[in-house]
Amino acid sequence: MTDEPADTSRLTDADWAEINKLRRAYETGGDEALSAALQELMKDPHRCTRVIGAYYPEKMREALKDAAAEAGVTIEDLRDLLRKSEGSRH
User: Fold this and answer.
1) How far apart are CA 86 and CA 79, in angstroms?
2) What is the DSSP string of 29-56?
3) Alpha carbon distance 74, 90 (integer Å)
4) Is CB count within 10 Å lower at the N or C end of the chain?
5) Both ends of the chain: CA-CA distance in Å?
6) Measured between alpha carbons, how far is 66 from 16 in angstroms, rounded to an integer?
7) Per-domain residue ranges for the chain?
8) CA-to-CA distance for 33 and 49, rounded, in angstroms?
9) Is 72 exposed, middle or buried (0-12, 13-18, 19+ CB in 10 A)?
């Protein structure tokens, strides 16, 4: 957990706090402590996606695309969803 995130553009202050928590866990307890901290992080899927995605942006994009495809969600479905959500904000 010593490497820096590859893409920090979507990280919030709380995400950075989580990254620091993961780093401390690894520094003080090694792989076992890091594994436990990651298990805890996975309880918050949104934060987990941002934190892991910051380190592995391409892998996260591919995993999300694969999961959407497996669920039968297409790019057009997502575009429609975005258009509808943008319209409801105004």
Assistant:
1) 10
2) HHHHHHHHHHHHHTTSHHHHHHHHHHH-
3) 26
4) C
5) 42
6) 27
7) 1-55, 63-90
8) 20
9) exposed
- For residue 6, the SS3 value is coil
Q: Could you tell me the pTM of the whole model?
A: 0.76
Cβ burial, residue 86 (10 Å; 0-12/13-18/19+): exposed
Q: Coil, helix or strand for 27?
A: helix
- What count of other Cβ atoms lies within 10 Å of the Cβ of residue 21? 15
Digit-by-digit pLDDT tens for the chain (90 residues) are: 658 999 999 999 999 999 999 999 999 999 999 999 999 999 999 999 999 999 999 999 999 999 999 999 988 998 998 899 887 665
Contact 5, 11 (CB under 8 A): yes
